[in-house]
Amino acid sequence: MRTRWIAIFLILLPLAEIAGFVVVGQWVGVWSTLALVLLSGMLGMLLLRMQGLQVLRQLSEEGREGRVPGETIVHGAMIVVASLLLMIPGFITDIIGIALFIPSLRRLIWSSIGRRFVVAGSSSFRREYRYTGKQNTGSQGRVVDLDEEDFHREANPSSPWSDRKISDE
């Protein structure tokens, strides 16, 4: 059922974009329409760079504070989608892309879809290692004690970790 709606959307979107080109072209002229399309593409690239760096800083800050950056990741994904929509030629995708750059709209979208997503954090995300003065004896405290005749290493000349020295003489 969903694939049918996606197929219909993918067929109707280019037709709507062509109609948008015709309407805007009649209002402002052909050259101005082309200039608007090129300008929106460059604006999309610029906003992706600026907003993307800001999202990376927020992700880094939340990671340092030990929080799971679920909302920040979704906002970053929406910014990438918005930039891509601006880079696609067409005025309908430009309007949707510009709308996705508005933080309050992104928060509204996150509040409506955020309930469906679960971001699981790990309890071992922030581990602390402290010196207790006790010797680590391996897993569950088992120690295997071998005599000299129980274990010996055979020399392997092709191994770089071999104990045997190979001379070129």
Description:
The structure is a single chain. The longest helix has 35 residues, at 30-64. The protein has helices at 2-28, 30-64, 70-87, 91-100, 103-113. The chain has a domain at 2-114. The protein has five helices and no strands. It is mainly α. Residues 122-133 have low confidence and may be disordered.
Output the keywords:
single chain, 169 residues, mainly alpha, 60% helix
Number of strands: 0
Strand content: under 5%
- Continuous helix count: 5
| String of helices and strands | HHHHH
Q: Average the pLDDT over all residues and give the rounded result.
A: 77
Largest sheet: none
The structure class reads: mainly alpha
Q: Over the alpha carbons, how many angstroms does the gyration radius reach? A: 30 Å
Low-confidence stretches: 122-133
Shape: elongated
C-alpha termini separation: 77 Å
Helix content: 55-70%
Report a brief summary of the structure.
The chain has five helices and no strands. With 169 residues, the protein is mainly α. The chain has a domain of 113 residues.
Question: Can you lay out the helices and strands and say which pair or pack?
Answer:
Elements: H1 2-28, H2 30-64, H3 70-87, H4 91-100, H5 103-113
Helix pairs in contact: 1-2, 2-3, 3-4, 3-5
